[in-house]
Write a structure and sequence with these properties.
single chain, 482 residues, mainly alpha, two-stranded antiparallel ribbon, 66% helix, transport, UacT-like
């Protein structure tokens, strides 16, 4: 308790309910926003360009996305009745929906995109309670596999940022990678040399230091900041009334199921990291917040919302488990959405600098998954098979991005998300191998059997080095005399 008081923290019953002074909340929240800001602005840029919108309308899509992400984060962290998980989860525009939205926008513009999102969001909201009942299908062997793949799936984003960002004319240059490495080095040095609050701000301080160095060397461009408006409210239905096309709605509903799967995984992951209880009711409340934000998004000119996995990694890395810190970050997003000039400053952070921070953040997500998998029992069961196959399927989109291209679009949409593919495979295999008891035998896994034999062999060698006799593994005869 004394340590909590010294840190300015008010400790309550649940770890996520910890409170900090306003200044600390604002700083911790800003660190969350700097971590995910690039991910929020990317989908509107991609979809707006695909729809052929002018630059001013694309800018409105970006501002609306920032504003909506802030409102969705506040709803998720603070909650209203049965809506909101009340966990330290940052909400933002989902990447999972980008390819589907781009395909729809290429044919008919943004109006059918918005119509499909509204209908799919309402469907997702209605089934949230039922979907959440599946939480019992996510034991540690499943959640650990999913969390690990979440981290691995995010690594290409960090590496692309480190190279200069997609579409950069200097993509992969030694200068870009050097700045990413410099930012990473700054973060590591701060983490190693300082303890307490300063160490917890290593990501934020690394981003600031990296950006200042990039600006001093002419690698950061703040010229567009002056062109941004000082204040602007996101207009309602700026792009006209949404239109509703059956094909677009079906495709978007499939995407929403993918997003719900990813959000469920993130809610369970943050529960593991924070060390708090997450049951089916809490998952359902979190999904309702996700889907409510998604259904309202098109009215403001924005797209589906989802929990941001990179911020799950930031919670794991910093140890700041307070949902109020993340709520403060949601407030920062709302302000950025109302003041485009402030958002323009944040958007000027060079991608290589973001990449250096992303390596630490996304890697920590994978590390959290590995930590969860370390608690799984691999003795006399097939859990090793579940983990190996689930992770292997999950990294297919990373290792071979075109692997699923020839499959039907609905199937490919699901499998192109390594997180969703891992969740499906892990859940199904866990049901078949662990829940269905008929036919189960001790030592069923050849992997666990081999591991047991290696352990026994190691024990035998240790005993022989001490001059003791022990049966040779796999043999019923005693070890031969020396």
């Amino acid at each position: 308790m004394a340590r909590a008081a010294q840190a300015g923290r008010v400790t309550t019953g649940r770890p996520e309910d910890q409170r900090y002074p306003f200044g600390q909340l604002l700083v911790y929240g800003t660190q969350h926003i700097l971590t995910m800001y690039g991910g929020v602005i990317a989908p509107p840029l991609i979809v707006g360009t695909a729809a052929g919108l002018p630059a001013t309308d694309v800018a409105l899509l970006v501002t609306a996305g920032i504003f909506l992400s802030g409102l969705a984060t506040l709803l998720q962290t603070l909650g209203i009745g049965p809506v909101g998980s009340r966990l330290p989860i940052v909400q933002g525009i989902s990447f999972a929906s980008v390819s589907t939205m781009t395909a729809i926008a290429n044919d008919g513009g943004v109006q059918p995109v918005f119509g499909a999102i509204i209908v799919a969001g309402v469907i997702g909201f209605v089934i949230s309670g039922f979907f959440a009942q599946l939480v019992r299908l996510f034991p540690a062997v499943v959640t650990g596999s999913i969390i690990t793949v979440i981290g691995l799936s995010l690594m290409p984003v960090a590496f692309t940022w480190a190279m200069g960002g997609a579409g950069s004319k200097t993509l992969g240059s030694t200068g870009n990678i050097a700045f990413a490495g410099l930012t990473l080095l700054i973060i590591l040095v701060i983490s190693r040399l300082f303890q307490g609050p300063i160490s917890r701000l290593s990501i934020l301080l690394g981003l600031i230091a990296g950006t200042l160095i990039a600006w001093a060397t002419g690698r950061a461009d703040f010229s567009r900041v002056g062109d941004a408006k000082i204040f602007s409210l996101p207009p309602v239905l700026h792009f006209g009334a949404p239109t509703f096309q059956v094909g677009a709605i079906v495709s978007m509903t499939i995407v929403i199921l993918v997003i719900m799967t990813e959000t469920t995984a993130d809610i369970l992951a943050i529960g593991e990291i924070v060390g708090t209880e997450v049951d089916a009711k809490r998952v359902g409340d979190g999904l309702r917040a996700d889907m409510a934000s998604t259904a309202v998004a098109p009215l403001l000119g924005s797209f589906p919302c989802s929990a941001f996995a990179q911020n799950v990694g930031l919670v794991a890395l910093t140890g700041i488990r307070s949902r109020y810190a993340v709520a403060a970050g949601g407030g920062v997003l709302v302000v950025l959405g109302l003041f485009p000039v402030v958002g323009a400053v944040v958007a000027a952070i060079p991608y290589p600098v973001l990449g250096g921070a992303g390596i630490v953040l996304f890697g920590s997500v994978a590390a959290s998954g590995i930590r969860t998998l370390s608690r799984v029992d691999y003795q006399d069961n097939l859990n090793m098979v579940i983990v190996s196959v689930a992770i292997a399927v999950g990294i297919i989109p990373i290792a071979a991005p075109t692997f699923w291209n020839q499959f039907p679009e609905q199937v490919a949409t699901i499998l192109h998300s390594g997180i969703s593919a891992t969740a499906i495979v892990a859940v199904v295999l866990n049901l078949l191998f662990n829940e269905v008891k008929k036919g189960n035998k001790p030592g069923a896994s050849v992997f666990s059997a081999a591991e047991d034999e290696r352990d026994e062999l190691g024990d035998t060698l240790d005993d022989e080095l001490r001059g003791e006799k022990r049966p040779v593994p796999g043999s019923r005869r005693p070890a031969p005399e020396h």
